[in-house]
Amino acid sequence: MSVDRERLTSLMRAEIARFEQERPRSRELFDKATHRMPDGVPMLWMAKWPGPWPVYVDHAQGAHFTCADGIDHVDLCLGDTGAMVGHSPKPTVDALSAQLAKGITTMLPTEDAEIAAGMLAERFGVPMWQFTLTATDANRAMIRYCRAVTGKKKVLVMDYCYHGSVDETFATLDENGAVVERRGNIGAPVPPSETTVVVPFNDVPALEAAFATGEIACVLVEPAMTNIGIVLPEPGWHDALRELATRHGAVLIIDETHTLCAGPGGMTQRDGLRPDAVVVGKTIAGGIPAGAYGMTQELGDKVRSSLHLEDIDVGGVGGTLAGNALSLVGIRATLGEVLTPESYPAMIDQATRWTQGVSQALEDWNVPWQVTQLGTRAEYSFLPHAPHDGGEAAHADDFELQQYLHLHALNRGILMTPFHNMALMSPATSAQDVDAHTAHFREAVESLFG
Fold first, then answer.
1. Average pLDDT over residues 296-305
2. Where in the sequence is the domain holding 42, given as residue range(s)?
3. Are the C-beta atoms of residues 224 and 231 closer than 8 Å to each other?
4. Beta strands 377-381 and 370-374: pairing type?
């Protein structure tokens, strides 16, 4: 069943008119901002949100935010995981407030550093940890360390992966299977084929061929893809990945930044995965910038022995604000009192409720789309079946349709994760919040296919 494009254009026009009528204050702020910032936004990608101008936020709490026009929104985006614990949870805010009065950053360790590292070690099963400000920084650090300890140069990634703004990961496969720049890659320093090997997710023969080159220093992978739509691993794929990395002397890095939605220790803990290194970020400090990477004792020893103390601060790994006191107390409070193992069952229940609501609407109108759930996160795609790999998910995307669905939701007080059709549940997300999305989605599907 295809979407009638004329109908979609007409529906989008009506939603834009509603948006413009209901959000005059956001427009005023936008018009003022365009004199100081390109497209009126602090980061250019924010211009991609649906609507003629961005929604400006006044305040956020729990699973809701209120915009500058006084409209309350159910937030199913949650900062694209940065606010997975909900906006400003009290234990985190209290701990951060106390630390603000004591000092923010000193370039010296605090007691919270060891405590936070211990919490992460317990959850993910790797004992040695370092802290950053973002998961991007953590991924960059691990790639550098892997090159240093293996003596190899190339990074293996999955086609259509996303690991933050890491140069080596903005690579994809062309129609001939060659590694090329991913569409939209800005100012790449070198052709990605010089640094990166790309294979499709869930493709064991492609993994075997890539490792057989002997060039792979490390493989950087989400245990399930999440930034091109949720793509789940097939049975045996992770086992094959682990065996091949071991056999060929490559470091296996699992990026749990988004897949922390699967459980307290992400898919690493839930599925018994055995990485050499784990990267996590965004949500671990309740929204305060923080990231971390953990290593096995063996890998940690190799990394440390490869570094000379005199040069340890100029090797391209670090940052004077990384591991600051504020970030570390945020991690301690968030993992210890908010994003606890006990918080997950209710969050997963709400994601299941969301998934069922979407599935029922698709069934009722006989729409050939599908929905996939991963713990506290779920997403629908414009495919009749779950995607097998990132390429299949990417080729099923429909930007105009996606923009309509997102704007339709926004006009009904619901914010979805941008640029794909994903929802994330926080400890504060209620059944009523989920049901509001179900009502919007049913209305939107009926408008397209009814």
1. 97
2. 5-84+342-449
3. yes
4. antiparallel
Distance CA 245, CA 288 (A): 34
Structure tokens at 95: 């701990």
Same domain, 59 and 121: no
Query: Which of 7-11, 118-122, 305-309, 413-417 is least confident?
Result: 305-309
Place of tokens 């990267």: 279
CA dihedral 160, 165, 169, 174 (to 10 degrees): 50
Sequence-distant (≥ 6) Cβ neighbours of residue 122 within 8 angstroms: none
What does the chain come to in residues?
A: 450
Q: What is the pLDDT of residues 215-272, one digit of tens each?
A: 999 999 999 999 999 999 999 999 999 999 999 999 999 999 999 999 999 999 999 9
> Is residue 371 a contact partner of residue 378, using CB atoms and an 8 Å limit?
yes
Query: Does 290 lie in the same domain as 272?
Result: yes
Strands (E), 112-258: 128-132, 154-158, 171-173, 179-181, 196-199, 216-221, 251-255
What is the model's pTM? Answer: 0.97
Element (H, E) at 378: strand 377-381
Q: Which two tokens stand for residue 386?
A: 């779950």
Q: Cα 91 to chain center, whole Å? A: 24
